[in-house]
Design goal:
22% strand; 12% helix; alpha+beta; 5-stranded antiparallel beta sheet
Length: 361
């Protein structure tokens, strides 16, 4: 090789080395900030720009969140369905709730949609707040269903700042419990999970007890409320209530006990169960009479309007047992089915959650 070729070859090797160094630097920065290509993709799984002519946008369960950029200023209808809790054979998890409302949105506003997951027969709770059960308890109980919500700030589903930014929540149902299935000789107790609620989630059920020393009592989970989570209610072998422990929290369960049945997610999550079903979560709509919103610091205001000023009108809230809610529980009303049409009277959402945004005007 002549001198000119040697210099050219050296220059090429230098460029390659610089390229590799730059690539390593970029990868190390991404790793340091814990940003993966998958996570970058998560934020734009569904992004609608001004070129979109669609008037309806649907969001199914995907184990992450969607980003929705409002394409044009106008009036939008938002509908959410919470996920149901896990079933255990014929013992059923609570069904998910439905919430909807109309809201004026400005072009460019960014909303984040978190769609709740059904846990199936596994021990891990449904995505977006469904409570997991303790390792090995899948022999007796099931995990809770996830909530579906709309947020103004993105982040992991359990990020505190992101949870505070929720302006609408459709609750998930509590997990079922079939403790008697594992031991037919002793009636430990069993029961359905509580349905996702309107303003208040439903309690789990505990029944089929044998009042003897072999049961050592049982427990069920109560529903989440507007300002507090559900509780674990313990009973003695004689059926006397012994104590209550709050296990549900704001958008997520409190990790303080070993659940046999997991609480349903919601504005506040339901309580856990043992030898009985877990409680369902509560729902929330900014502007809905009876809801108790928070201020930016997370303190409840006693008012229905979210601190962001994003407020819905024409609100509808139907719990997982099919009851319509104003500021109290009213009569049963058919819940819209995300697949089309309506569920039967008294039936809530089953399986994974769902969300839909429709441009009205």
């Amino acid at each position: 090789m002549n001198k000119k070729g040697f210099v050219l070859g050296g220059f090429i090797y230098l460029l390659m080395a610089l390229f590799l160094l730059l690539l390593l630097t970029i990868l190390s920065v991404l790793a340091a900030n814990k940003v993966s290509l998958d996570k970058i993709k998560d934020d734009v799984l569904y992004e609608v720009g001004e070129e979109s002519g669609a008037s309806m946008h649907s969001f199914s369960y995907n184990e992450s969140y969607y980003a929705f950029i409002v394409p044009t200023t106008g009036l939008y209808k938002i509908e959410l369905w919470g996920a149901s809790g896990g079933d255990f054979l014929q013992i059923l998890g609570g069904k998910g709730s439905y919430t909807s409302g109309t809201i004026q949105l400005e072009k460019g506003t960014k909303l984040y949609i978190y769609v709740g997951g059904n846990p199936g027969t596994g021990e891990t709770g449904g995505y977006n707040g469904g409570q997991s059960i303790y390792e090995g308890q899948g022999l007796y109980g099931r995990a809770g269903g996830g909530a579906t919500d709309i947020r103004l700030i993105s982040g992991s589903w359990d990020d505190e700042t992101s949870l505070k930014s929720r302006i609408m929540v459709a609750a998930g149902g509590g997990g079922a419990n079939y403790r008697n299935y594992a031991d037919q000789l002793c009636g430990y107790g069993q029961g359905n999970g509580g349905a996702g609620g309107g303003l208040i989630g439903y309690d789990g059920i505990s029944e089929e007890h044998t009042y003897s020393d072999c049961t050592y009592g049982w427990a069920l989970g109560t529903g989440g409320m507007q300002t507090s989570g559900g509780q674990l209610v313990n009973y003695s072998i004689s059926g006397t209530e012994t104590d209550r422990i709050t296990t549900g929290g704001f958008g997520m369960s409190l990790d303080i006990l070993n659940p046999q049945s997991g609480g349903g997610a919601g504005y506040y999550t339901g309580g856990i169960g043992g030898h009985g079903g877990a409680g369902g979560g509560s729902s929330f709509i900014s502007g809905h009479n009876g809801c108790d919103a928070i201020n930016a610091s997370g303190t409840h205001t006693g008012q229905a309007d979210h601190y962001s000023g994003k407020v819905f009108s024409d609100t509808i809230m139907i719990d997982g047992n099919g009851y319509f809610w104003t500021n109290v529980k009213e009569s049963q009303s058919q819940m819209p089915n995300p697949a089309g049409g309506y569920y039967d009277l008294g039936v809530g959402n089953s399986g994974n959650g769902y969300a839909r945004i429709t441009k009205l005007i």
